[in-house]
Write a structure and sequence with these properties.
The chain is an alpha+beta fold. The protein has two domains: 3-99, Phosphorylase Kinase, domain 1 (2-Layer Sandwich), CATH 3.30.200; 116-334, Aminoglycoside phosphotransferase (APH), C-terminal lobe (Aminoglycoside 3'-phosphotransferase, Chain: A, domain 2), CATH 3.90.1200.10. It has helices at 3-13, 61-70, 116-134, 138-141, 152-166, 173-184, 228-236, 255-258, 263-274, 282-306, 314-318, 321-334, and strands at residues 21-25, 34-39, 42-48, 81-85, 95-99, 194-196, 205-207, 214-217, 224-226. The strands form three sheets. It has a five-stranded antiparallel β-sheet, with helices on both faces. It is globular. The chain starts with a helix and ends with a helix. The relative contact order is 0.14.
């Protein structure tokens, strides 16, 4: 990217911005490359579409910008969006710029650097903010048309099956079996619709520097209107992921000793916050989440092989499609669904 050209552009479009600037790519992240901007006027964050061929509807930075603007005056903490650029001539792809949020990001859900009380408070805060996302007044926020009508799981199963097939690099029998099961077991639409984040997990949350308080939820690329339990099940996959795996999880850890709630307690706390009496079809929601994540990482692998991945770990992450599908099938067998 031409830093001088970008600085000149941002000086014209962001109030108070002053160059020159330097760019530094953040480590991690497998989709939209994200950069720290250091400028004379302060620090900012830039998220762009990756270069090269992209699957249809993927890497929608314009949707990220729209939803974070809509959430500015809600109970959902976000980084203040400053400008969206749809002129590819500036840096070669669409991008947007937001405020830099100075806080803590954690990558290991076991939170090894915190004590038991802090861990408990962190998980309570994650639960609270997830419920806040699902409680957003869509009409007041101007997000009533942010997703398509109809059964969310039918739409998403169709979408991610197509995305998976478009990025398939080898035949994975467990993934074929999982896709088939998910497609045949979609629950009847119960009418529950909310804003959903789509990738709600620990490392997409920025915590206050000293308090167990989320000060920004980031990476809204997969956000849409849909079924809120899709977000809950997606986060609860971490309870079932091996702690030693690349996608760090909580399986095999003494969670009680660590101060981390059991999965059923986390679900109950969420249900209480949302006024839900019970949650039916939980094995489906989990299986769907594993299927969707497997399809996502397969796309990461394809981009890596095509040479336009966002992370150095992309190929390693992409090889997780098979074990994710196998994990889902094991869970379904244990639940008596297979």
């Amino acid at each position: 990217m031409d830093e001088q050209k970008l600085a000149t552009y941002l000086e014209r479009h962001i109030e108070g911005f002053k160059g020159p600037l330097t760019l530094e790519k953040f480590a991690g992240g497998q989709s939209n490359p994200t950069f720290l901007i250091r400028a004379r006027s302060g620090r900012y964050v830039l998220r762009r579409k990756p270069p090269g061929f992209l699957l249809k509807s993927a890497h929608a930075v314009d949707r990220e910008y729209r939803v974070t603007r809509a959430l500015e005056n809600t109970d959902v903490p976000v980084a203040n969006p400053l400008h969206l650029c749809l002129d590819e001539a500036i840096i070669g792809s669409w991008f947007y710029v937001m405020d830099f949020i100075d806080g803590r990001i954690f990558w290991d859900p076991a939170l090894p650097d915190l004590d038991k009380a802090e861990r408990r408070a962190m998980f309570q805060e994650m639960n609270r903010v997830l419920a806040a996302i699902h409680s957003v007044d869509l009409k007041a926020a101007g997000l009533e048309d942010y997703g398509r009508p109809g059964n969310y799981f039918e739409r998403q199963t169709s979408r991610w099956t197509k995305q998976y097939k478009a990025s398939e690099t080898e035949h994975i029998a467990p993934m074929e079996q999982l896709m088939d099961w998910v497609g045949k077991n979609i629950p009847q639409d119960d009418g529950a619709v909310s804003l959903i984040h789509g990738d709600y997990r620990l490392d997409n949350l920025i915590f206050h520097p000293t308090r167990p308080e989320i000060i920004a939820v980031v990476d809204w690329e997969l956000s849409t209107l849909g079924h809120p339990l899709a977000d809950l099940a997606y986060q609860c996959m971490q309870w079932r992921m091996p702690s030693a795996s690349l996608m760090r999880g909580l399986d095999g850890l003494d969670r009680k000793e660590l101060g981390i709630p059991a999965e059923e307690d986390y679900i109950r706390a969420y249900a209480d916050r949302m006024g839900r009496d019970e949650i039916d079809h939980w094995p489906f929601y989990l299986a769907f989440s594993f299927f969707r994540l497997a399809a996502i990482v397969q796309g990461v692998l394809k981009r890596s092989l095509d040479g336009n991945a966002s992370s150095k770990q992309a190929e390693e992450v992409g090889r997780l499609a098979r074990p994710l599908a196998e994990k889902a099938l094991t869970m379904l067998r244990a639940a008596g669904e297979l």
